[in-house]
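Practice problem: predict the structure.
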Amino acid sequence: MKENKQDYKYINLELLRYLQDKQNVSQRELAKEMGISLGRINFLLNALIKKGAIKVRNFKNNQNKLAYAYYLTPTGIKEKTVLTIEFFRRKSAEYDTIKNELERLERDIKSLKNNKSIVNKNE
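Answer:
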């Protein structure tokens, strides 16, 4: 399934949110929590590291050598803020569109009910 740019941004937003709340996490745990593949998590994390949005550190005294600590950088916090605002605007526009469509459907239903009562009276 091909995703559009907005879906990709939303996944990055969710990943940044998760890492802001929980820094000490393995990629396997991230993949499980977010419901996406381990390879995809690796790709997303590397892209965020390359952009300077997150920094990563290995636990020196950790038994699990696959666990890392991921920290949002000031760039990452700014990116999360921008993505949050974009997501809010997108969802607000979707809400307005759905609300208008529901109002239109409600008018159509009332009109159909009125027409049905007129037809029933004429029979």
